[in-house]
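Record type: monomer structure entry
Structure origin: computed from sequence
Chain ID: A
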Amino acid sequence: MKATPAAAPRPSRSRARTTSAAAFVVLAALVPTTAAATGNQEVAVELPYVCALPSGQLPATVSVSATFPERAAAGEAFTPSGVTTTVRLPAEAVADLAARDAAEVRAATRLDVGVAQNAATATAVWRGTAEPAALPETGPLTLVATGDVPSVAGQGGGDLTFSAGALSIDLALGAAEGTADDTAAADPGSLTVDCTLAEDAPERGLLATVPVGTGTPGASGAPSSPEPSGTSGAPGDGQPDGSGEPLPERQSERSPEVLENRPGAAPDRDDVPPCRYDEQHPPTDVSLSAYITGYANVNKMKGAAYLPPSCVLIEQGLPVPGPPDPDYLIFDTLSYANFHYQERKQTPPFEATFLSFDFAPVKATMVMEQTGPMRIDSRMKIRLSDFTTITDTYVRAPLVLRVLDLEVNGTPLDVGSGCRTRTSLTSKDPDPANFPGDHLVLYGRGEQTAGLPATGYLLLSGGALSGEMSVPAFTGCGSDGEDLDRLLTASVSGPGNFVKQVQGQTCAIAAPVFPSPENEGQCTEDLQPYEIPVAER
C-alpha cells in the first residue's frame, strides 16, 4: 500500500505547534534585563540505566544537572533551570549505529521526572536536544542534551521531590560522506532508544528535594515513597498523561502541579504592529501570518532580553516524500518566511535598557533586518508501530542587528545611520555542507499520539523554538570621528547565547477560521493573526 500525504491539513487549536519565524526574536539578545537568582541549589546526579538497542539490553550512564530553589512557598510555581541530560551509551551501542551506515547522530531526549509531595505524585517530561555528534571509532558515545522544562508548584507544606524515571532517546542518524565511487550513502534513517532506570540506582533516581511552605523540612531528603516516574503517571491513576501538561480534573487536590511555562499576559492588540497582507504583498493559497516573541540570553550581561511581538508572513510549502525508513513514513516540507513591518523585512523598532560593564546604564533602540530569505525545513515522521507523529523543524534566518539610537548614562550618542553587526547572528548548523554561510538556526520538535493533544512546535499552530547563537562584532557605529564599534562589541558580542522564541497560531488567509462558540479564533475579521503569543523564559 502506498501512502500519500494529505494536502497540509489545518490542525485544531489543541496546540499542534507550528514552526515559523519564531526564531527571530533573537534580536532581543542585545539588551538583557538582569536576572540574578539567589537561594538556589545546584544538582548533579549520575544514574545507571538499561537501554534497549538492536543488539539487546545494554547498560548506560545518565547524568542530570540542574538548578533548583532551596525552598518554595506553597502554590508558588518555579522552573528548574540549566537542565542538562548527558547520556553515555556503550561501545556496543556505537556498533549498532555504525551497522546502519551512520557516521553521526543528533539526539533528542525525553526524561520522565516523578514529582512527589507527601503521598501525592505527578509526572513532568524534561525534553532536551543535543548538537550533532560524530560516532567515535572506539569507546562510548556521549550525548549532551539541553532544553527548557515545565514549571512545578507544590500544593501544601512538605518536601517536593524530583526523581528520574523512564528515558527515551530519539536518534536522527547521519550517513557517511559517500562510497568510493562517489555515490551517496543510503540514508540510515532514525532510531528511538527506550531506557529504564536500573534497579540498583541510588535513592531510586532522586534528583533534588525542595522544601515547600514555612514549616520544617522533612526528616530526610528522600522522596515520600514516590513511585519511579515510569510507573507513577499512568492515565486513570489521577496523574498526567505524559504530555507534561496538568490534568487537574484527574489529580487529587493536593497533588503537585506540572505547569506549562507561559508567564505573563499577551499584549493588547493596539500595542502590536499590524500583521496583514496588502497590495504590495498579495496572499496566495498557502499564505500564513503569525506573531512571534521571546527572549534571548546575553552572556556578557548575565541576563535575558525581550523581543516584543513582531509580524511574520509565511509561504507554506507542500509535503513531499522523505527518505525511506522501515519504521516510519517520512514527509519533508520547505517553507519560507519574512518579517513584515511598514513594507520592510524587519521587526518594528524596539527599545531596551541594560547595564554595560555592570555599571553604565545604556538605552538602545534597535531593529532586526533580514539579509536573505528565512527558510523553514520540517520533517514529519509517522511511526508505523503506533502512528505517533514526530515533526522536527529547523528555522534558518540571516538576520543582522541594527542600532538606531544609543544613550549611555543619560547622554545621547550619535551612532550614525549604518550601525549594525558585521554579519548575521550565527549558529552552528547541523548540516553545514547544504547550508553554508552566516545565519541563525533554531530548532523545534512537535509530537502527537493518536487521541492525545500535540505537544511541542509545528508550523501551523505555533510553539517554542530554541537554539544558541553568537553575536558578531559591530561596525559603522559612530559619527564625527567618534568610533562606538568597540563599546558595543565589548558589551554584547560573543558566543553561547541561548535563544527561546515563541510563535503564535497562524492565520491561513485562504481558509480563515474566525472565533465562534465551536472554534477558537485563528484569524481576526480583517485577516490578521488572532493569537498574540506570550514570551516564555
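Annotation 1: Helices lie at 91-98, 229-232, 485-492.
Annotation 2: Residues 91-98 form the longest helix (8 residues).
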